[in-house]
Each structure stands twice: as C-alpha cells, then as structure tokens.
TrEMBL record:
Name of the gene encoding the protein in the UniProt record: hpt
Pfam family, one: Pribosyltran
Biological or metabolic pathway of the protein: Purine metabolism; IMP biosynthesis via salvage pathway; IMP from hypoxanthine: step 1/1
EC number: 2.4.2.8
Localization annotation: Cytoplasm
Reactions this protein catalyses: IMP + diphosphate = hypoxanthine + 5-phospho-alpha-D-ribose 1-diphosphate; GMP + diphosphate = guanine + 5-phospho-alpha-D-ribose 1-diphosphate
Protein name: Hypoxanthine phosphoribosyltransferase
Species classification: Bacteria, Pseudomonadati, Bacteroidota, Cytophagia, Cytophagales
Obligatory cofactor(s): Mg(2+)
Main EC class the enzyme belongs to: transferase
Length: 175
C-alpha cells in the first residue's frame, strides 16, 4: 500500500509479472525488427523505466531517443496535447517504435503518431506497457501491449500521480 497526498494505492501488477512481460515484448520486437535497425522513440516521463527494461532485452541493432508531450493533469485526461519536444533525429525512412507507459483515451499516442508520420518514416509501431480498452476514444493500432487493464488510475514503475510515485517496481492502483 502507498499513500500519496490524499490518495491510497494498492498492489496491482507485481514487479515479477512486469519483468516477465517486458521480456516477452522484447522477444517479439527482436524477431520483427531483426533487419530494421529501429529507432525507439520513448515518450517521457512515464515510459522511462519500461523503455529501459525493454532496451536491456533487445538484442538487435537499434537506436533510442526521447520525446516529451503532456496532456494529463492529476487523474483526468485533459484531452489537450502539447507539441512533441526533443526530437532531434531525422525519422525519415526510419522504422520507429514509439514506447508509451499507458494508452488511456488514445489521444496522446495518436497525436504523436500523426506528428511523426509527417516526416515520412518507413514504419511506425507502438509499444505500450498498459492499455485501458474501455477508455479508448480514438482508434489506434497498438502492436505491443504489456497489459490490458480496467479503467482505473494506476501508478508506479514510471507512472505518476501529480509527479509522485514513479519510483516503484510494482504497479499500484487507486483504491
Ligand atoms: P491518453 O492521451 O491516452 O488519454 O493518455 C495518455 C497519458 O495519460 C499517459 O501517457 C499517461 O501519462 C497518462 N495516464 C493515462 N492513464 C493514466 C493512469 O491510469 N495513471 C497514470 N499515472 N497516468 C495515466
Ligand atoms: Mg505517457
Ligand atoms: Mg502523468
């Protein structure tokens, strides 16, 4: 159990389950991208631990870069997106794997996809640790999904509540 400010979070996905699943996803990516030298595009801040663990299990030649967007305040999606910041690499003709912590309404990832697509990458796929199908409001192709979860607010393993709580190995859920 973890209390942050006024909220109590209880265990949801264990560190062991996360690590096992991340390894499986990495295995799938290793097969699909063996000859593609992908550019991993990590959406900060939430995906930083997932991306780090995923990278450790990629055995193919690949590059990594980090971008930033922000659309979320406290526990409610605002649906308002800021632009992509921090992408200095050219994505033209590159095979991109966008790495996200969680897909909720889907607005963030679809906006990121659209903006990346402007520069004509060879392909774009999405790897998200968590996915809330019931919250989805825009159609989106998710190629690598760690866990489908119910529509509840989660935290830990990179995901925050108001900036706090990213530093756990497990994922917790709002009680
Ligand atoms: P979307 O644009 O898909 O609605 O939301 C995507 C972003 O909202 C995620 O990258 C994440 O930062 C935040 N988010 C969505 N659901 C949750 C949640 O349950 N917990 C936390 N900590 N962040 C969430
Ligand atoms: Mg995110
Ligand atoms: Mg957040």
């Amino acid at each position: 159990m973890l209390t942050i400010k006024d909220k109590t979070f209880v265990p949801f996905i264990t560190a062991d389950a996360i690590q096992a699943r991340v390894q499986e996803l990495a295995g799938q990516i290793n097969q699909a991208y063996a000859d593609k030298q992908p550019l991993i595009v990590v959406v900060l801040n939430g995906a930083f631990l997932f991306a780090a663990d995923l990278m450790k299990h990629l055995s193919i030649p690949c590059e990594i870069t980090f971008i930033r967007v922000a659309s979320y305040t406290a526990t409610q999606s605002t649906g308002q997106l800021k632009q992509i910041l921090g992408l200095s690499e050219s994505v033209t003709d590159r095979h991109l794997i966008v790495v996200e912590d969680i897909v909720d309404t889907g607005f963030t990832i679809s906006e990121v996809r659209n903006q990346l697509a402007v520069d004509s990458p060879a392909s774009i796929s999405v790897a998200t640790l968590l996915f809330k199908p019931a919250a989805l409001k825009t159609p989106i192709d998710l190629h690598y999904v760690g866990f489908e979860i119910e529509n509840r607010f989660v935290l830990g393993y990179g995901l925050d509540y108001d900036g706090l709580g990213r530093n756990t190995q497990d994922i917790l859920v709002l009680e």
